[in-house]
Design a protein that fits this description.
By secondary structure, this protein is α/β, with parallel strands linked by helices. It has one domain: UDP N-Acetylglucosamine Acyltransferase, domain 1 (3 Solenoid), CATH 2.160.10.10. Helices cover about 35% and strands about 15% of the residues.
């Protein structure tokens, strides 16, 4: 019981430390990630003891309450994991997440797909292992039995299909900014489109 209370206090402290919009532990109690993490801890114990259906039911209820944080009861989460915002986070059954990891919204730690996983040995890992102090940016997708090393940063919108060394940075291409066309350029482009439309070259 003492260990459970200590972990709960850690979770509250992490939310206050990493979410600038939260100023007190009392306010942290309303953070959307908290019920997901606390429910997962209970579901994980039940899952390990063979109570798979009850564990899955708890995970399902947590997903409904938290706006889509889906953590499979078989996944292993370390200490002081911080899920910011939380919407549409998916963590698969054989995923392992280290200590002090930060996960932003729409992150997926998933499998490659049933068509490939069905050919793996029974009990083989299908999901990523994420090291300590890793940051997973919004909409980052890490698929398959890859390993993300300690202190790595997976940038927003990145797709990771291979191992990431410790301390590495994985960055998706940023959007290209196209300057607004001048009136003369817009007229020229419109004339070109009109001539192509009437020339039959489409």
């Amino acid at each position: 019981m003492r260990k459970v209370i200590m972990r709960a206090r850690e979770d509250l402290s992490v939310i206050v430390a990493r979410d600038p919009s939260v100023r007190t532990r009392a306010e942290a109690l309303l953070h959307p990630a908290l019920p997901a993490l606390w429910t997962h801890r209970l579901a994980s114990v039940l899952y390990a003891r063979g109570h798979r259906q009850l564990a899955r039911l708890l995970a399902y209820l947590a997903r409904a309450v938290t706006g889509g944080i889906e953590i499979h009861p078989g996944a292993r989460l370390g200490r002081r994991v911080f899920i910011d915002h939380g919407a549409a986070v998916v963590i698969g059954e054989t995923a392992e997440v280290g200590d002090d990891v930060t996960i932003f919204h729409q992150v997926t730690l998933g499998a490659v797909g049933w068509w490939r996983d069905g050919r793996r040995e029974p009990g083989a890992r299908r999901h990523p292992v994420v090291g300590d102090r890793v940051v997973l940016g919004a909409n980052a997708i890490v698929l398959g039995p890859v390993t993300v090393g300690d202190d790595a940063l997976i940038g927003a919108g990145s797709l990771v299909l291979r191992d990431v060394p410790s301390g590495a940075r994985v960055l998706a291409p940023t959007a290209e900014i196209v300057p607004r066309l001048s009136a003369a350029d817009r007229e020229e482009a419109d004339q070109l489109l009109r001539s192509l439309a009437t020339s039959g070259c489409w």
